[in-house]
Amino acid sequence: MIDREQVLHVARLARLQLNDQEVETMAGELSKVLEWIEKIEELDLEGVPPTSHVVDVANALRPDVPGPCLPREVALAAAPERTEDGFLVPSPQAV
Amino acid sequence: MIELTAKQAADALEAGEFSSRELFDAYRERAAADELNAYVWLAEEAPEGDGVPLGVKDLFCTEGVPSQSGSRILEGYRPPYTASVVERIGAPLLGKTNQDEFAMGSSNENSAYGPVLNPWDRARVPGGSSGGSAAAVAAGIAPWALGTDTGGSIRQPAALCGIVGLKPTYGAVSRYGMIAFASSLDQAGPLTRDVTDAALLFSKMVGRDERDSTSLEFPEPVRLPSAERLDGIRLGVPGELTGAGIEPGVLDSFNATLKLAEELGASIETCSLPHAPHALSAYYVIAPAEASSNLARYDGVRYGLRRNGERGLVAMYTETRHDGFGPEVKRRILIGTYALSSGYYEAYYGRAQQVRTKIAEDFSSVFENFDFIVTPTAPTVAFELGSKTGDPLAMYLNDYCTVPMSLAGTPAISIPSGLSEGLPVGFQLAGPAFSENRILDAAHALEQAIGFDSGRARS
Fold first, then answer.
1. Which chain A residues are within 8 Å of B311, Cβ to Cβ?
2. Chain B residue whose CA is closest to A67
3. DSSP secondary structure string, B108-157?
4. pLDDT tens digit sequence for A35-77
5. Is residue B339 part of a domain?
6. How close, in Å, is residue A34 to chain B by CA atoms?
7. What is the domain range of residue B106?
8. B406 DSSP assignment
9. Domain A1-43 adopts which CATH fold?
10. ω before B364 within 30° of 0 (cis)?
11. Quick check: helix, strand or coil at residue A7?
12. Beta carbon pairs, A and B, within 8 Å
């Protein structure tokens, strides 16, 4: 089970605002989904190594040579707000 | 022109029977009259270059062309570069196709740009998440299209729309320029009218790309399929994916196809994927976990939507994400964040990754004795719009037969095997990593024997 407080905690971690109705709905739905996910607890997985990736590659290295990258103007073109040469964000101090 | 497959159209272009421009305009005109909501953006006129025009799922970045992954948070975003795979194919871009938001969904009802309708029955869903691509190909408003598959998002809509969909081996196709959902599972693949078209499009997609460090060189040239027989081919039917939960009409079509396979010379035996019943549970930890991390980038700073920039940085993040993401995306971000949070990581993510190991081992051991694993692609035919939107778990069960291959990273194709209640049924054929040539050959032999008529969806 996951309660309202846990939903709010996880939403804070995910930087996701939820209104009261959403918190209510999510608590119910997430509880059901988690209960169902917890079926994997039935399995005996003692000593089984985890698989994070199916492709058997170790290190993917490239030559340490500088290559072209996005020009600043192009990278900034889609910014909701910008300055001359950077992305503009609200102050972290503001209330 | 519209009745030609993409391969036939390519041959006709080669022979000078009509021009690329004429072909493009014929499809452009049909697509502009589209009543299925299959496209979210349509080219205004034929671009430079020759070839058979291509529908491209919204989540592929296309330079200067809207690429929104079905999400409000990317509304109007025009990327500064094009996805490697779109570049490699090099076909004239016909349009961007609708999809579930960030590829999360099995019905295309999670798109911020409205649901797509199934051309076989407009009261029903086309499947998802590549629902726009599947519906467009089935309805003959695209000759072929590009989709992506994370847990079934190419194969399931292909099944529900009566077309062919191939999910390649993980690593066979570059992911560079695909708007990420779950990076260890996402693969691009073709949605086409027949198996030959799937092979032709796939042949243009494969290969190592230095911009995707997980991509690999395909070990052999991709061939156009020619097999008419299945002599000596051993098909394994996993009991776990062919019993309870599969609709009777779907099972009938599946069993009829097995009979055809036998007549073509294949041997058919039961096999076992003992951990397959746990695949969906593991998937719904792994995919949301990776998604919660991938979607952290949508913060209102560099592109897309921004809300309430005047109330401080954190409020800007949280309100932007609240307004920009739809309900299913929020649900998965929360599940993923929960599963990765302190105190729960081992119990959820750690265990799910161990289940993934067991599933991959199940596949390896079946492939010691069998050439392919066959199952129905989806447990049901296309369902009615709105019938599953209130129940996330019922929706997730659509991927019951497709998720195991995604976790194992193995290739699988869905081909239409017939109709049930007048709606298409998909037959899934899965093989070991990099066995696409053999899969395409076997699917081709079956396709000839099945003789599925897809004409009704284009009328």
1. 90, 94-95
2. B211
3. STT-TT-PPPBTTBTTB---SSSHHHHHHHHTTSSSEEEEEESSSTTHHH
4. 999 889 899 999 999 998 887 777 888 889 998 889 999 999 9
5. no
6. 8
7. 6-274+360-458
8. H
9. Histone, subunit A (1.10.20)
10. no
11. helix
12. 175
Q: Which residues of B touch A75 (CB under 8 A)?
A: 80, 302
Which residues 6+ apart lie within 8 Å of A82 measured at CB? A76, A88
* Cβ-defined contact of A75 to B80 (cutoff 8 Å): yes
Residues 114-173 of chain B whose Cβ lies under 8 A from any Cβ of chain A: 170-171
Q: Is B78 on the interface with A (CB under 8 A)?
A: yes
B408 domain-assigned: yes
Q: How large is the ipTM?
A: 0.94
Whether chain A has a CB inside 8 Å of the CB on B292: the answer is yes
C-alpha distances in Å from residue B249, one per residue of B14, B159, B347, B423: 42, 14, 39, 10
Alpha-carbon dihedral sign for residues B380, B241, B144, B416: negative
| Tokens standing for residue B148 | 């992506």
B356-394: per-residue pLDDT in tens? 999 999 999 999 999 999 999 999 999 999 999 989 899
Report which DSSP code applies to B347: I
Task: Provide mean pLDDT across the span B342-349.
Answer: 91
Q: How far apart are CA B134 and CA B140, in angstroms?
A: 10
Give the pair of three-digit tokens for residue B246: 């599969």
Cα within 13 Å of Cα(A12), Cβ side: 6
Q: Between B213, B281, B357, which is nearest A39 by CB?
A: B281
Give the separation between CA B215 and CA A39, rounded to whole angstroms.
Answer: 33
Q: Inform me whether the C-beta atom of residue B18 falls under 8 Å from chain A C-beta atoms.
A: no
Q: What is the C-alpha separation between B400 and B411, in angstroms, rounded?
A: 16
**What DSSP line would sit under B271-304, residue for residue?**
E--TTGGGHHHHHHHHHHHHHHHHGGG-SSSSSS
For residue A48, the chain B residues in CB contact (below 8 A) are 354, 357-358
Q: Is the pLDDT of residue A95 over 60?
A: no
Alpha helices in B307-399 (DSSP H): 313-324, 327-340, 345, 351-366, 392-396
- What is the domain-level CATH number for residue B164? 3.90.1300.10
Domain count, chain B: 1
Domain ranges (residues) in chain A:
1-43
Sign of the CA dihedral B400, B404, B406, B407?
positive
Give a yes or no: residue B377 inside a domain: yes
Q: Which of B133, B153, B253, B420 is catalytic?
A: B153
B330 is catalytic: no
